[in-house]
From TrEMBL, chain B:
GO MF: ER retention sequence binding
Lineage: Eukaryota, Viridiplantae, Streptophyta, Embryophyta, Tracheophyta
GO biological process terms, semicolon-separated: protein retention in ER lumen; protein transport; vesicle-mediated transport
Protein family (similarity comment): Belongs to the ERD2 family.
Name this polypeptide is given: ER lumen protein-retaining receptor
Annotated source species: Nyssa sinensis
Claim: Hydrolase is one of the keywords in the record: no
Subcellular location per the Swiss-Prot or TrEMBL entry: Endoplasmic reticulum membrane
Amino acid sequence: SSINDLKDEL
Amino acid sequence: MNIFRLAGDLTHLISILVLLLKIYATKSCSGISLKTQELYALVFLARYLDLFTDFVSVYNTVMKLVFIGSSLAIVWCMRMHRIVKRSYNRELDTFRHYFLVAGSFVLALVVHEKFTLQEIFWAFSIYLEAVAILPQLVLLQRSGNVDNLTGQYVFFLGAYRAFYILNWIYRYFTEQRFGRWISWISGLVQTALYADFFYYYFMSWKNNAKLQLPA
């Protein structure tokens, strides 16, 4: 899902 | 991780180091908006709620701790440090930043990806960060001349999100990940708010003149 797409960003 | 995001994170880190240098080297926080520092502390606390629950990488965790720790240390310094707090321009730093907090929170309640505590606080932190620089820009306009370190601090702080926008474009084309449109729009607004500052900053650098923001 798009939710965790950018979870690795600050 | 891509070069744009790494450049963005390092630029963000540099802005914090420049601010710490200014405060510790000059023992003064003149020209710095305490309200912007408080907003940034809130941004990091709201955004990194998953600090202890979701482990992404050592780099990610360390940077989150640095951002939270440094923003709280700067707020503490400007409020409590005997010498530093004397140079705070209280009478110039009058932006009603509570409205920015309230507005961002209400917007996050309405516009978010998922109605969960973590996602709402994440959206809140993204909206708040987009406008967090406003008290600082208002203070710069009111305080006339801007000392070099303060100007560099604002410059790097504005540049970091511009690198993030390049990172999102890069990820869109390489990983087919549209990512989060909330970040896209807020990031564009955030960077646009620095536009006039960047213009005057560049002109002062080109003419080798002191940075002056028109009142």
